[in-house]
Amino acid sequence: MKKLAVLVVLAALPAPAFAWNAKGHMVVARLAWRQLSDDQKAKVSAVLKKHPHYAEYLADRRPDGFAEDEWAFMRGATWADWVRGKRDYDHPTWHYVNYPIVPPGSSVKALIMSRRPSRRTSSTSSRSAWTRSARGPTRRRRST
Question: Are residues 132 and 79 in the same domain?
Answer without folding.
Answer: no
